[in-house]
Amino acid sequence: MNSLYIFLNNFDYTYIFNAKVVTILDEIDESILVQLQENARISMTELGKKIGLSTPATNERVKKLEDKEIIKGYRAVIDPEKLHKHVTAYVLFDTKQGTKFREFCIDHPVVIECHRLAGQYSYLVKVVTESVKVLEAFIDETLAYGEPSTLIKLSSVVEDKPIT
Q1: I need a surface site. Which of 11, 72, 94, 138 has the fewest CB within 10 A?
Q2: Do 10 and 39 share a domain, yes or no?
Q3: Is the pLDDT of residue 1 over 60?
Q4: Does some domain include residue 29?
C-alpha cells in the first residue's frame, strides 16, 4: 500500500510518497525561479516588485529555495566566441571503461560537460575548443577508452531557456 503524508507551511507543501520527499512549489516560487533564471543579478527589491512581494518576503522565499537546493547557485554565462573558442561539439561515447573515462573527462580542459546516459551510448560529452584540429586531438585521445561519435554544433535554436 502506498503512503502519502502532506506537510503544509507558508510557502509550499511537501509530501512523502513511497519514502520520497516531493516539494510542490506555489506560483510565487515558480515566478521567482523564472525571474532568477532570466537575470540572476536582479536585486531583491526589483524581484519583489515583479512578483508582488516585499523585499524581506522575497529574501525569505529565495533563501528557502536556496536552502532546499532548488537554487543550486549563481554563475556568469560566458560567450566562448569572445575567448576564441569557435568550435562546440557533442561527443556520444560508448565505453566499458566508465571510471577511467570519467576521470579523463574531469581532467581534460576542453570538456565542459559530461553526462552518463542510458541507451546505445554511455556518455554525452560537450567540448568547446579553439579549432577543429584541437577537437580532432581530443577525439584521438578518447579512442583509448572506446568509440566516439562526434556532432559539431552549427548554431543554437534554444539556449538557457528557464526551467518551469
Answers
A1: 72
A2: yes
A3: no
A4: yes
Domain that holds residue 128: 80-152
**One domain for residues 94 and 119:** yes
Surface-to-core class of residue 9, CB atoms within 10 Å of its CB (0-12 exposed, 13-18 middle, 19+ buried): exposed
Residue 13 sits in the same domain as residue 38: yes
Query: Residue 34: in which H helix or E strand, if any?
Result: helix 27-38
Sorting pLDDT into bands at 50, 70 and 90, what band is 3? Answer: very low
109 in any annotated domain: yes
Q: How far apart are CA 85 and CA 38, in angstroms?
A: 24
Distance of alpha carbon 30 from alpha carbon 163, whole angstroms: 9
Q: Is the pLDDT of residue 153 over 60?
A: yes
* DSSP structural state of residue 61: H
Please tell me the predicted confidence (pLDDT) of residue 133. 98
Mean pLDDT score, 95-108: 97
Q: Number of structural domains, the chain?
A: 2
Query: Cα-flanking dihedrals φ and ψ of residue 110, to 5°?
Result: -85, -10
The closest of 117, 162, 108, 163 to 140, measured between CA atoms, is: 108
What is this structure's pTM? 0.78
For residue 23, name the pLDDT band (cuts at 50, 70, 90): confident
DSSP string, 150-164: EEE----SS-SPPP-
Residue 61 and residue 20 share a domain: yes
